[in-house]
Write a structure and sequence with these properties.
mainly alpha; 2 helices; 36 residues; single chain
Amino acid sequence: RELQDYVHWFNNIRIHGTLGYESPIDYKDKHLKKVV
């Protein structure tokens, strides 16, 4: 369970420099709003 939690955090919640220092979820939501 701990590994799954870490992988979820690493892939979805962690702030990424290449995404403008946003989490992947925030980045995706922000850019989907621009498309729609």
